[in-house]
From TrEMBL:
GO terms for cellular component: endomembrane system
Protein known as: Cation-transporting P-type ATPase N-terminal domain-containing protein
Pfam entry (one): E1-E2_ATPase
Cross-referenced Gene3D superfamilies: Calcium-transporting ATPase, cytoplasmic transduction domain A, Calcium-transporting ATPase, transmembrane domain
Organism of origin: Cuscuta campestris
InterPro entries hit by this protein: ATPase_P-typ_cation-transptr_N, ATPase_P-typ_TM_dom_sf, ATPase_P-typ_transduc_dom_A_sf, ATPase_P-type_domA
SUPFAM superfamilies tied to this protein: Calcium ATPase, transduction domain A (SSF81653), Calcium ATPase, transmembrane domain M (SSF81665)
Subcellular location as annotated: Endomembrane system
Classification lineage: Eukaryota, Viridiplantae, Streptophyta, Embryophyta, Tracheophyta
Amino acid sequence: MENAYARSVPEVLEFFGVELSKGLTDSQVARHARLYGRNVLPQEKSTSFWKLVLKQFDDLLVKILIVAAFVSFFLALANGETGSSAFLEPTVILMILAANAAVGVITETNAEKALEELRAYQADVATVLRSGCFSIVPATDLVPGDIVEVSVGCKVPADLRMIEILSNQLRVDQAILTGESCSVEKELDATTTTNAVYQDKTNILFSVDNSKIQFWETLDEVMGSICRIGFGDRNAEGVSLLHFAGASD
């Protein structure tokens, strides 16, 4: 289900054929698991250092500059030029290419490390309502359409589309995803912004929001829905339902 943040709660429930009071049946869970896969980050093989280095030179402009450096070098030899000034131009070009490759390798290495750090934020288990009963299951077994209960302070097991807030205010810390310095307030209203970015999706709780979920004034319950499966995967489509339990539960 695309753009869950722009959909109404009845649309979400109808799309998955789930009753809010009962959750999915066992047959629905099995079908959704086959359709959407597991709620995990895709495991990618780490790229070796030398492959990263070579990758930085696999660019048309870089190849042109390398050829230009060698042409300049051989022209200097052919013209009988001597001294450091004769090879200044090719040396500068090669130094720039080396610096560019170093920056590229560092950037890609940091990106791989960031992905590994995101895995540390994945919830281990989730309390899910299926066939009218709550039970604890591995968070990786969640599927779109599941109704999940999460207590205050727990990690968010998947991206969630909230459907009901039974407290006066709900704020979460999503700095690891958006870079926002303060916790942000969440609300139920559908977002009508075209091509909404993460900050615009005020009815969504993201799986990297960690455990910093804050209820203000009345500590009670919040109802929501998982809008994507695949922990931290912003491309996997699908919506599940979430039931947030406050401290008073």
